Structures are given as C-alpha cells and as structure tokens.
Amino acid sequence: MAEVPVPPANLKALRHHIQAIEGFTRTTEAVLSLGPVEIDQALPWGGLPLFCLHHVVGSGEAFGRSGFSPPATAFVATLVARLKERFKERGTVVWCLPRYQAADNLYGPALAMLGLDEKDLILAKTKNETEALWTMEEALGCADVSAVVGALAAPLNLTAERRLQLAAERGRTTGFLLQPSAAVTTSTAAVTRWRVGSLPSAAPAWAGLGRPRWSLTLDRCRQGNTRSWIVEWCDETRNLRLATPLRHRSVDPVAVGGTVISLRFVA
Amino acid sequence: MPDARAVVPTLKVIDADPGADKICLGRLLVWVRRYTPWVSLEPLDERGGASLWLDMTGCTHLFGGEQATLDDLAIRLERLGFASRLGLADTPGAAWAAAHCVARDIVPAIVPEGKQRTHLAGVPVSALRLSLRPLDTLTRLGVRTLADLFALPRAPLTRRFGQEVCLRLDQLTGRIDEPLSPDIERLPYVARMAFPEPIGRTEDVEAALRGLLESLCHRLEKDRKGARRMTFELFCVDNTSERLQVGTGQPVRRPEHLFRLFREKLDGVDAGFGIEFFLLTVTATDPLDVEQEAVFQDTTDHVAAPVSAGRELALLIDRLEGRLGTGRVLRPRVRAVHIPERAAGLVPALNANKDHTVALQDREAGLLHSDRIRIRPGTRPVYLLPKPEPINPLPIQLDTPRIKTVPLPGFQWRRSTYRLTAAEGPERIAGRWWQGLLPPDRSDEGASYFALCEDGGAVRDYWRVESEAGERLWVFHLPFPLVRGGAQQGALHGARSDPNSLDRWFVHGLFA
C-alpha cells in the first residue's frame, strides 16, 4: 500500500476538526503546570488543561480498594491548590463528599499544609450519586469557583461524566473526579485519567522518613499517550518533582549501608 | 401610697410599663386604620398620656356621619377594653382640646365647623398642649380658660411666653395649619395569586412562582432590602396545603436565584386535585444596597470577572444548602489546638461570614493562632480517622531488620498486614492537663481508651510509619498507664483489668 504523505498543516486541521467534534476545543488555551517539566511536556497541551474534567484514581490495594487513596487525594489537593492560586478572586474549591464518609476525615490542617487553606474550601456532603452529580454540576457553573472535586465511590456512566465535562467547559471551571481504584471503568469522558499510588520512599540522609513518593500514571489522555512517572512531593516547597530512580528500597540499606552513604557523597 | 391604701384598702398597684404601652398603642394605631388611612400617634408625654390622631376628612360619611363615627369608635374601643375620650374638630388642636375636656361637659365632643372660638371658650388653658412653664404662669396670672386668653392682646403674650402660646392658639383656631405626619403602613412582603381554575402542571406552578417572586423582589428593591427567608404556600382544592421554605446566607432579591431555590423543593410537592391559591411571604429581610446584577449571558467566551467576588459563591451555597439539606454544606475550620482531632472542625458554610468566632474562641482559651504554623508541614495526615482504631502489633522477631528505627515491626489493621520499613517519631502530644481527668461517669471499662482518645485526655506518642508498599500511617501508643476517674484506685483497677494497656497501639490517620 502506497503511503500517502500527510502535510502537517492538513494533519493539524484534521486534529482541530476532530477536537471540534469531540466538543473539546477551548482547553488548549489554558494549562496548569504540574511541576516537573517532563510531565508537562508529555501532555499534548504542555500542561494539565483547564476547564475540563479530570479523573484521578487511587492505584493498587492501598488502604483497601474501595476507600479513597490518600496519595490520590493529596495529588488532587495539590492541583486544586495551584488552581486556586491561579484564580485568586474566584479561588474557591468545592469538594463533594459522600455522606457516609465523615467529612472531618479529610483533615483540614493537612490540606492547609498542601496549600489548600480552609477559607478556600467548601465541603458538600451528598447522599447519593444523583446529589453528588447535581452538586458538582451546580458548582462547576459557579463564577466564584475555580475547581470542583467530586469524591465518588461508585463508577460513573459515560453520560454523567460527559455532563460534568460540558458543565466544566461552560462554567470555565475545572473538575476532578476522585475515585477509588475499584470504581474505574474502561472508558471515560474525562480528558485525562491519573492513577496515583504510594511507593516506598527513599531513605533520607537523616533518620526518619523521606519525602512521600508516588507512582503517577497517566492512564488515559485524550490526544496523548499514556506514561508513568515516579514523583516526590516536597512539603516545604509544595512542589512535585520527579524522583531520581537511582535506587530502590528493595536493596536493604542496612546491609549496604556504607556503600549507600559513599554513593551519596559521590552524588 | 400608704395614704391611698388607707382610703381604698383594695387598691391594686401595677407598675407603669411604657414599653408595653407603646407596643399596645402601635397595635391600636394599626387597628384604627379601619376608619381612615391617615393616622398618627402622639407619643407618651411626661404625664403618661398619649393620643391617636385620625384625619377623618372625607371618611365620616362612610360610617354614617360624624356622630355615628364617634359612637362606633367608642363602642368598639370599649369592646376591646379601652376607655376612650374622643373629640372631633376642624383642627388637631381643637380636637385635642375637645377630647381632653369632653368629660367635664364644658365642650361637645364634636366641635362644629369653624366654631372653635365659641365652642371652646370655656376650655381651660391646659387643653392648649402647652409646656408646663407657660401653663403655670398663665394659671398664676388668672388666665384660666381660653376665653380669657382670647381676650388678651397677642403682642404682650408673645413677648412674655415666646411663640408657643400664640402658636397653639392659632393651631386651635386653624389660622396655622398643623399637618399630621401619618405613620406609613409597612406592608408585609406578601404576594398572592388565586386561580379561577385549579392548576396542577409543574410549568404552570413555576410560572406563577416566577411572577410572584418578581413582584416581591421589585418591592424589596424599592425598600433596599433583601430576603433571608421565604415561605411559599400552595393551597389545593381538597383543602390541603403545602409549605416550602427557603433560606439564604445573604440577603437576596434576585428572582432567578430565589426561583432556583424553590424549584429544588417543588419536585416533592403533590398537587393532588390541583392548586388554586399561592401565597408567597418573605418572613425575614436584611438591608441590601443597590447591586449591579451580574450579566449572565456572554460568559462562555471569556472569563467574566464577577461584579462582587463571593456573591456568586453565596448564591451557590444557598442552592446547595437548599437541596442537600441543612448542615451538609460545610467549611473546614482549623483551630489552634494541639490535639489533632480537635484542631479541625467544620462550620456550616451558610454562617461562615462570622469569620472571627473560631479565632476568638481560641484566644479565649489562651491559644494563639500562630501556634498552628509551628507544626512542620507534612506531619499531619490527609485523612484523620474519626476515632483512633486499635491495631494488633506483630510480634517482634529476632531477625526483624532495622528494629531500631521502627517502633514496632508491623501490625494488622482492617484485615491487612502492614510491615514497617521506616518510621519517624515519636511526636508526643500531651492531653489537656488543665481540663483534668476523665469525668467519672465516662470512666467505664471498655470504652475508656476511646473516651480518652476522644477527649484528648491521654498522653500520646505519635509515629509516622511507612509500610513496605509505601503506605504511610499515623500511629500512636499510650506511653503511660491511664489514670481514670481521677482516683488512683481507678488506675490500679484499670491496670489489673487490662495488663497490656501499655502496649496498645492505635492508627489515627493516613498520610499521602
């Protein structure tokens, strides 16, 4: 079969055409940097696109498959905190929680440490999925809200996700669906789907715990490829950064303690 | 008073209550509007008397003439339990004089038109509404009735008493006009709509509601008020009624917003055989200045800067609260308390305008808000369990690696096993010693640990631990035996009944 060379201009036009059909046209203007340049560049928009719906799920078995994974929650909280800073005046974040989950589970002081101050956060406890979706849609349409997080235990159907996506586009807000790993469906109307899990941290030079390390997987990405990274969260600078995959905890640091220390000196 | 008691032994003494009098007069004022819309109230004077003014111009014929009107008024007032003295005249001054002297049979209750001078000649000067000083002087000078006063030349009177006496005289005779300033009726914010045929379709109800809201909001705008609470009542054909209530966090008078609040509740309404009457009432208002209404269109193509930041948010909170129920829309509050579970609280977002209450409470408790900054970032869990959950530590084995760096080799919690590889701690969080020990009634056996944890009464050593898989948890153990109920006996008892109490560990939070 003869290969037909496609001129880049045509390809671009075609992409735009497909985007227009998908109803996902305006997102390329505004992006949010995730922190590490490598991750931003891996996304076709050069960052996390705004005014659309993103899907964040926990990965693996951490704390049971049905609960909301803390790394995923923290990841969403950091993104939302950045968004809030970007839209200063309309910076409020609405966080939807199922009613059975006591809302004080989400610990305010820790969120404040992640950059999400209490004055910028509104928690809405919802009884069922219908209420949660309604709340999210209302919040996405509010002019004073920058981001909406919906913690939903059950998987959503495509129509509901599509509605949220449209509401986000219309209201110029960004929505995040936070779901446990058990609730993941194969197809999603969200623009990206991230899978966040915890990883053993690198032992620090001092005694104690290192920086929290997450496995960050771009599970689905419209117009883009899936990728996976290992990132570290730095509490002091409130930054995500790529973890240097130099060594892994599987090597027992006690057994090779001396070597490790000398390595560190070299590095 | 003893003298009076001596004369009338059965004398009842009731203290004067000017406040209650005023309220009562206000109600009476509303009631007398049945005769004329132009009514006003002369406030209580120093002698404890008060009058109601009714401008009956053009109204008496409705009640069958002047005399019939007065009779009617007297009878109705008597039925209400008021003794009354009534006077009717051309001018307020003359009417006042007539009303105050009618009991002495010197004047008729009704002074004929233009006959004030002749008919009121015998009235004492005290009927002129003079202040005490000129009245006193006039009495001492032997000027007792109005006839005496009319006989005096005006110029010396003015020189002697100033304007007052002549002014009152002229007001009596009508040479100077004395307008009554009426008490403007404050109509309640009520709108109603009745239908010749009962309606039942949701669209019709919505349309009616919209109309009612618009008319009410228009009135609110005129008065520069905003609604805080509204009631919408629907009366059905079969004599049942439904009542919907909405509340707002801030005063609102935007019909569209109020309509959306009500619409959330309209779904639950059963129209039955049809609704024939609507009643919309604003039950609470707050002042609301003129605001620029945000433009709703045209927001899709550019980020429209909100006219007033937070306004849209307040409306959103109203809507959420209306649909999800009260107490479902919350704001987190971080308090300057060192006990973890007490450091976070939730307040209803609807009342969150009172921003300072929490800080104030903390200050009263001797806590500074800056204290909470001292906590190192990353040392508090993203999820805090509502209650610390006990864990089963794994037994320490001799070949457990790195036993020196972790406080315990591992544990079982929620049917999973966590083997620890790293830990940081301990961070000792002491109880609130200034609040004493557990109250005796809560020192029961099994629940005491949780009770202590809840009350923050125990000293806890917190560790941040990491499992093999990288999960991070916040665990603590109680380093000291518990002293319960404030008695040492309790402590001994507790130690005996639970010998492992020293070794008990709990999970309290999950880190990211």
Structural topology:
The complex is a heterodimer of chains A (267) and B (512).
Chain A: H1 8-22, E1 31-32, H2 37-42, E2 48-49, E3 53-58, H3 70-86, E4 92-98, H4 108-113, E5 121-126, H5 129-140, E6 145-151, H6 158-171, E7 174-179, E8 192-199, E9 213-221, E10 227-234, E11 239-242, H7 257-266
Parallel strand pairs in A: 3-7, 3-8, 4-5, 4-6, 6-7
Antiparallel strand pairs in A: 1-2, 8-9, 9-10, 10-11
Chain B: H1 2-7, H2 18-31, E1 39-42, E2 51-54, H3 66-80, H4 92-101, H5 116-119, H6 132-140, H7 146-151, H8 154-161, H9 163-173, E3 190-199, H10 202-222, E4 225-236, E5 241-252, H11 255-266, E6 275-287, H12 311-324, E7 329-334, H13 340-343, E8 344-348, H14 356-364, E9 383-393, E10 410-413, E11 416-429, H15 448-455, E12 460-467, E13 472-477, H16 488-497, E14 505-511
Helix pairs in contact in B: 4-9, 8-9, 10-11, 11-12
Give a description of the structure:
The complex is a heterodimer of chains A (267) and B (512). Chain A is 30% helix and 24% strand. With 267 residues, chain A is an alpha/beta fold. Chain A has one domain (26-266): P-loop containing nucleotide triphosphate hydrolases (Rossmann fold, 3-Layer(aba) Sandwich), CATH 3.40.50.300. Chain A has helices at residues 8-22, 37-42, 70-86, 108-113, 129-140, 158-171, 257-266, and strands at residues 31-32, 48-49, 53-58, 92-98, 121-126, 145-151, 174-179, 192-199, 213-221, 227-234, 239-242. Chain A contains 7 helices and 11 strands. In chain A, a hairpin with a 5-residue loop joins β9 and β10. Mean pLDDT of chain A is 79; it is low at 248-267. Chain A has a 9-stranded mixed β-sheet, sandwiched between helices. A two-stranded antiparallel sheet of chain A has the order 1-2. Chain B starts with a helix and ends with a strand. The longest helix of chain B has 21 residues, at 202-222. Chain B has 4 domains: 19-173, no CATH class; 190-297 and 306-321, Dna Ligase, domain 1 (2-Layer Sandwich), CATH 3.30.1490.100; 330-374, no CATH class; 383-511, no CATH class. In chain B, α4 packs across α9 (163-173) and α11 packs parallel to α12 (311-324). Chain B has 16 helices and 14 strands. Chain B is of the alpha+beta class. Chains A and B meet through α3, α4, β5, α5 and β8 of A and α12, β7, β8, β9 and β11 of B. β5 of chain A pairs antiparallel with β7 of chain B.
